Amino acid sequence: DPKGTPNSFLNVKRISSETQTITFATIPDRTMADPRTFTVASSASSGLPVNLNASGACTISGFTAPVDFTVTVTGAGRCTLTATQAGNGTYLAATPVERTFTISAASQTITFATIPDRTMADPRTFTVASSASSGLPVNLNASRSEEHTSELQSH
Fold first, then answer.
1. What is residue 97's three-state secondary structure?
2. DSSP β-ladder status, 97-104 and 30-31
3. N or C, which end of the chain has less CB nearby within 10 Å?
4. Distance between CA 13 and CA 7 in Å, rounded?
5. Cα–Cα distance, 122 to 120 (Å, whole number)
6. In this predicted model, what pLDDT tens digit does every residue of 130-139 receive, in sequence order?
7. Contact residues for 38 (Cβ-Cβ < 8 A; gap 6+)
């Protein structure tokens, strides 16, 4: 009633926002020998899409869930992935979740055959074959070693 008589009703709608959480598993440390790309997944309890950002020694593609995100390691160091969900009319923004992991240089083994002793009468140049377990090239350096021997004489 436009005059404000006792028959007037006021409709009040209560608006409340629900909370939500992000699930994002811990990522184990890696080495440069591990595959450079791998996938991670995160989800929000609301079912809303999660955004993922990367900083440090990695990049990310597939920026919005529900697809798995592809992480690419760009070098040794630390990588931090941050999952966020901004919320909507029903859900509040979720607390961001960070996952940091370390990418270490991988160990390697260098192998080459034992080099036999040589004399000055042997050819001055010879070939030494070497390899690294990493597949990287091996650089060899030579240095000169002189052994001195002396004879003992009895008197």
1. strand
2. parallel
3. C
4. 19
5. 5
6. 888 888 888 8
7. 70, 71
